[in-house]
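Lab notes, practical 5.
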Amino acid sequence: MSTAATEPYERLLEAYARLVIRIGANVQVGQRVEIRGLPEQAAVARALAAEAYRVGASHVTIDYADPHLQRAQVEHAPEDMLGFVRPSQIDAVRAWNEDRPAIITLTGNPLPELMDGLDPARLAASQPVALLREVFPLMMSGTVAWTMVAAPTPGWAASIGVEDVARLWDAVAHAMRLDEDDPVQAWRDHIAKLKARRDILNARGFDAVRYRGPGTDVTLGLSPSSRWAAATLESADGVEFAPNMPTEEVYFSPDWRRAEGHVRTTAPFFLPGMGTVVEDLAIGLHDGTIVGATAARGEEAVRAQLDSVARAKHLGEVSIVDGDSRVRETGLLFKDVLYDENVGSHIAWGNGFAFAWENGIEMTPEQRIESGLNQSGTHVDIVVGSPEVQIEGIGADGSVVPIVEGNEFVLRDA
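Output from the prediction step:
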């Protein structure tokens, strides 16, 4: 490839790295940075590392995980060694309490069919749940600043049916607002819009929200401790960061005991850790528990995860995304949770957010569960919104107020 041909890509990659490091992870002078990705994502990882050093990071590491190793484990490892985590791995995560690194995780699976044909039960058992139990509380409590961003690769592009990685980069650039004259300011404006919606919802003090549409009619209860959140979080050191880039949502963690009804997904999704695309999933919920799950594709993998991960059958997130979504405007199915959850409103089974719960950070996991905040070793977002799905807020007095109509956020200040 000629130098002239690579220059636009290089400029885009540099702009991408600036946005992720300065807005996403918001790396501070003297801070350590950990970047986590796959070998195929090395180009993005290296660009992020270079930019982190430019803004003053003290030390940057790139931790590459090879999914071929996971496949080999599922195929050949002894049953009792599936999902094994070394004590040194747990110690390294616990050390985050002391040095407070910025954690950057790369998404966008370059090998989406690699796990095809594996035993779903063994695949589910291969998840490093013991490690995730250490990682989730530190991230959800704000102990460390962290962000998740995508890394375009030829394999990811091919898996979603776009002609080449340049087309995928175009879509990512649009979703990330890199096509704006000043992407950093565009993100600041976008963050302000989402926070304004968050504030309106919190001021309303709804007791529950209801999603109604084809295949979906579910009521999801808030706790008095639930707090709507959006766009950014603040670390224990007072650093504001954007955990998901892109993000188009406002969301809360429900009282896990208060979910009643049924939902049907309106977009396929890639089941994290299981290497499986799930299509046309329908689940039933009763007394806060998923009581049934069927799917046109990926049903066995969903059931395996729900049955194998503690408290996966309870909800941890309820989210609103309207038709303004930049991700939706691309018209692509990315087969990546970070992007596909931003296509439309969604719910998630698994772990809830301590930062979105009054006094949640100070609670133990057991106290969170007792108060209504689910805690689990997984968190899986499924899109249930569309222009046909209406979202309503329900007051403690039974009053009903439209929140989203025809895919437009219509709620205003009371």
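Observations recorded by the TA: The two ends are 58 Å apart (CA to CA). The longest strand covers residues 32-37.
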